[in-house]
Write a structure and sequence with these properties.
The chain is mainly alpha-helical and 102 residues long. The chain has a domain of 65 residues. 34% of the residues lie in helices and 0% in strands. α1 packs parallel to α2. The radius of gyration is 17 Å and the shape is globular. The N and C termini lie far apart (40 Å). The relative contact order is 0.15.
Length: 102
Amino acid sequence: MTIGRQLDLFSQPTDPIKLRHHQEQFQEICKRIKAGEKIRKIVMVVTPGGGKSLIPIIAAANLIPSSGGGNFQGTIADKICWIVPQLNLQKQAEENFVSPYF
């Protein structure tokens, strides 16, 4: 007799997300900015489906201090402005920002 088990549809993944090369590079740039390096402009060329929607989330996670104090003092940024050319990308952006996974 096979015993079924209840699926937890709301559990969060425990494995860290695997970043693509350009996402890793951007995360390193964020760390350099947080360390005080004067970087004023970042230009990224990413193909469609290349994971651009994670870039603002990486920026927010690294440059906006968390309400719990975070691991650094001071403010690098208090907001992220994310401009998208299509409404479906806006919806994707909103869903990514509220996702507990990110």
